[in-house]
Amino acid sequence: MPQRGPLTRPGLLAQFGPIFQMAYLPADFDAAIDYWTRVVGAGPFFVMEGITLSDMTYLGQPSDARFTAAWGYWGDMQIELIRPENDAPSIYTGPYAVTDRLHHVCVEVDDLEPVRAALAQAGATILIEGKVGETGGVIYADAGAGPGGVIEYVKLMEGGAGLFAMMREAARDWDGSDPVRKLG
Q1: Is there a cis peptide before residue 84, judged by omega within 30 degrees of 0?
Q2: Which of 55, 29, 142 is nearest to 94 (CA)?
Q3: Residue 13 CB neighbours (<10 A)
Q4: Which residues form the VOC domain (predicted)?
Q5: In the sheet that 102-108 helps form, which strands lie side by side, from edge to edge?
Q6: Is 146 exposed, middle or buried (0-12, 13-18, 19+ CB in 10 A)?
Q7: Residue 12: which pLDDT band, with cuts at 50, 70 and 90?
């Protein structure tokens, strides 16, 4: 059960908006894509391999974590599936690498500085920080829920909103064909 941090008002972290993404770290990445597409009907999934974040830190220390991500939509909810590609320190290895259940949720923001201030006020631990492209950034934080309760705040890079809109639109009338699509 999440512990109450030193909040000065309820919902301190919810002020930045609703979640738009639920993310999972499946033990079997391919089986997870099969489940989400064939059984649930979410998708198609768009896969990007070898992702790294510029200036990435894990618990304040530099990390060169590399991972593959697959994004698909179930209605307006984005489902992200993650596969670590190395053993570098990150939330995809070590104590935060919970598999086969909810790993983290994501909130899109316009500015990460107010998020950083609210996280500090809430007594949260910033797990990961990094740049996303030239214009975006990300913070993953544990606000007291521990592994499986991580919150990601992302400032999308230029073109990111359009990419996600394309994925959401592809899911609207998807007939189940071509369930896995590679991104450059």
Answers
A1: no
A2: 142
A3: 18
A4: 18-157
A5: 61-62, 54-58, 125-132, 136-142, 150-155, 102-108, 21-24, 77-84, 67-74, 45-51, 180-182
A6: middle
A7: confident
**Can you give the pTM of this predicted structure?**
0.92
Whether 4 shows a pLDDT value over 80: the answer reads no
For the chain, domains (ranges, CATH) are 16-172 (3.10.180.10)
Q: Tell the residue number behind the tokens 């999972």, with chain if given.
A: 24
- Mean pLDDT along residues 104-108: 97
CA distance 5 to 12: 11
For residue 48, what are its two tokens? 């990007």
Contacts of 135 (CB under 8 A, 6+ apart): 155, 157, 158
Which tokens in the block code for residue 131?
């740049």
User: Among all chains, which residue has been given the structure tokens 């930045």?
Assistant: 16
